[in-house]
Design goal:
Helix content is 38%, strand content 21%. The protein is α/β, with parallel strands linked by helices and 381 residues long. The strands form 3 sheets. Strands 3-2-1-4-5-8-9 form a 7-stranded parallel sheet, with helices on both faces. Strands 12-11-10-13-14-15 form a 6-stranded parallel sheet, with helices on both faces. Strand 14, helix 12 and strand 15 form a beta-alpha-beta unit. Helix 3 packs parallel to helix 4 and helix 4 crosses helix 5. The relative contact order is 0.12.
Length: 381
Amino acid sequence: MHILITWLVTSYGGAEKSIEYLANHIVEHVQKVTLVICDLSELPAVVSQLNLVRSIEVHWTYSLNEYMSVLQQVLYDKQKTFIQRVITNHRTYAVDIPIAHKNNIPTITVFRAILFKDKKIRTLVIKDDILCFIGVRPSDFYWDTLLLGKNFCVGVSECVTNSLQRYLREGRNSMSIYHGLPLKLFSENDRQSYSGKSEYFKVLVLSRLIKWKRVDVAIKALKIAVREIPKVQLTIIGDGEEMRTLLQLVDKYSLNKYVKFYGWQNITSPWFLQHDVYFQTSPMESFGFTVAEAAAARTIILAPNSGAMPELIKHGNTGYLFRSNNYKDAAALLVKISQMSSIKRQKIVNRNYDYFFKYFNAVYESRQYLKLMRTLPSELK
């Protein structure tokens, strides 16, 4: 079996690394893997450092016109082993699916975004080699292209798949396959060597500083929690358009000595290891790579009870969930965690560590995709 994996990169993050691991593991079980990447990120040099197995045929493109040209060449080149399946992401289905269907090739589209009923959906449109995200309705052309023909839809979490189901016509095929995470796993000794003994209760937020990520919830929660945790430190890693607003909020609440901003950091593991709690603020995460990084570093996770978070975190057992955007809830849980015994903390992070290691690894993910590709319904073959 010859598998074609296509991917559009608009920003560097864990998803691109996950594709590396997926391709490297799938190639061990099929005849050939071809990977075509359209890199429109601001960090192409970083993304290009993906460590891929030599036998994988890789095509890097840096514009949508170039991407379409290479994609058609790969599919039409009769000298290549016949491609039998395509795995693509939802950002490029407007390009990939029409071309794949023309060649009678079943396509698996991987959705990483949560779709909301009765709201506009963001989709990809090609126009003069410019990447445009516009609002479309399910009746529009590209959406119909997605739902019809030889296509199978995969969500990276149950919440994504469930949101997708609202738009799928009766009988359409879909399932959930969690990302296989390329994480370095850390021991309790690693944590101690990084953090040492500190009298401060350290809380970490790692996020793009944009409005919908709701980093302000962490600052507002700290304003309440500091009354009972006088020796607390909130570290915010990230950059974005909301930086000035967040700095003003910190100043307004007189929290300057408790909150530190460190901008964007390429290497994040040490930050997780140095903190007691990872505070996930965004209420709309469809998976949450930073939550997985926190689990790998054995850091307690505090997250909203929305999006994919309830799938990744079992409240009170592997971490803690607060009502979305409710900073009072979050503050109460911060206080609770700060007063927790070291034995209880270790039990929670160990359970979370084991859970992520079991279900969110590249080997497990690749097995799921291979099983899907080999057992696609007859109408897709």
